[in-house]
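Long-time lurker. I teach an intro course on protein structure, and each term I like to show students one example going from raw sequence to a predicted 3D structure in token notation. This year I'd like something fresh instead of my usual example. Would anyone be willing to generate the tokens for the chain below so I can use it in lecture? Attribution to the forum is fine with me.
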Amino acid sequence: MSTIHLHRTTILTPEQYIAGLTDFEPGRSKIFGNSADGYLDVHYKGLLQADVTEGSGGIWERLHYDWSDPNRVVLTTTDSNVWGGASGHTYTFTRRPDGATDIDVAVVRDGKNVKGRLLGFVLGTIGRRVLERAFENSVKAIEMRLRDHPTTTTSSQLIRMQRAIDGVSIR
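-- Reply from a regular --
Happy to contribute to a lecture. Here you go:
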């Protein structure tokens, strides 16, 4: 079993990132590369929970999403062709005084067969960077989506977004 911890600071509010994380419409793979449209099956989506199958590249998992806590989203793997046991993701959000948000993610990969155990080992060692890149890309994609559709975004958030995109400090 591998547990990978990821961190990113963003100009997004927790609510904005959660809205992107729980958007299960076609095109999800533009934000989450490991969630190809061909694998996406929304079994149930309520106000604070969802039951979704997603995956890509021959790997799929059914996840129970719970975002009832505004500072945390828990994705629990309920079925998969490679993951079992304690597998899942936990997103924790911390608002900063400067208006930014720290997002911490714990990804647990508990292989349920030889393929899963091998993938879990690889992700926990040399594959960590793949997960980091995917997480960074999801944050950037949601930031860009909000920049392109600013109806729910304040002008100060837009300025911070542009500075973040341009590589300028957001302090």
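Some talking points for your students: The chain has one domain: 2-164. The domain at 2-164 is CATH 3.30.530.20 (Alpha-D-Glucose-1,6-Bisphosphate; Chain A, domain 4).
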